[in-house]
Design goal:
This protein is mostly helical. The protein is built from 12 helices and 2 strands; from the N terminus they run ααβααβαααααααα. It has a two-stranded parallel sheet with strand order 1-2.
């Protein structure tokens, strides 16, 4: 190897039991870059924004972390966009909410919160904002179906008297944050309306895949209507039907 060449080996989870890893660690300069959270993440974020000659209000920072999550690579990309988009001066919360794209995990969490709270208007507004910022309607539809599939076992567990989110998540192999977010809705759920909702969603998805509903990038109206109906139906699940 040429003496001016620097060999860089990146491994997110090196197995220190392996002979090759032991040999490398004996001769290499090893640097670890742990995932930042809490105060260290805030310091990094503030420094990164400052390096671009900008400042971020506390409300904007809170909105950025809520929407984009805590992945530093994603945050750096979103901050770069904000630095170009926002006018001179501080980057404000409205700038963040206008252009920052939510991570998949944040999309699910936010929608879960609105639907669990029964906030139909807020959920519709949030979904509309996602679509305006480039979210694929079919991807959003699949997110909603995933949430419904998660809701069913949570309701089943509550019906059996289990209300501990960690136990439900472990039992049904579903994400703990989703269980925790859906638990308030499951606690006041009417089983008859849930069965009706699952039946409607399954029929709608089958029709979407077999031509009963039409969807193309140039004509997404029927799928957009299904998304709106899903959200309105989900926020009405606590109303018993007779």
């Amino acid at each position: 190897m040429h003496p001016d060449c620097v060999l860089l080996i990146v491994d997110p989870k090196p197995d220190k039991r392996l002979a090759a890893v032991k040999a490398l660690r004996a001769v290499a300069t090893v640097k670890e870059f742990p995932v930042l959270a809490g105060a260290p993440l805030i310091r990094w974020l503030t420094q990164y924004v400052s390096s671009l000659g900008r400042t971020l209000t506390a409300d904007a920072r809170e909105a950025l972390l809520r929407i984009a999550g805590e992945d530093q690579e994603v945050l750096s990309q979103e901050i770069d966009k904000l630095a170009l988009y926002a006018p001179p001066g501080e980057i404000l919360r409205e700038h963040v909410e206008a252009i920052v794209v939510p991570s998949g995990e944040q999309e699910v969490w936010q929608l879960t919160r609105y639907l669990s709270d029964g906030s139909g208007t807020a959920a519709l507004r949030y979904a509309s904002g996602l679509l305006e910022r480039g979210e694929d309607p079919y991807s959003l539809w699949n997110v909603l179906l995933w949430m419904l599939r998660t809701l069913v076992p949570v309701v089943a567990a509550v019906r059996e008297g289990e209300r501990e989110p960690a136990k439900i998540a472990s039992l049904f192999k579903v994400p703990f944050p989703s269980v925790r977010g859906l638990l308030p809705l499951a606690n006041r759920m009417h089983l008859s309306t849930l069965k009706e909702f699952v039946s409607w969603a399954a029929d709608a998805d089958i029709a979407l895949k077999t031509g009963g509903y039409r969807f193309t990038k140039d004509a997404p109206q029927e799928l957009l209507a299904l998304i709106d109906r899903f959200i309105l139906h989900a926020t009405d699940l606590t109303v018993a039907r007779v």
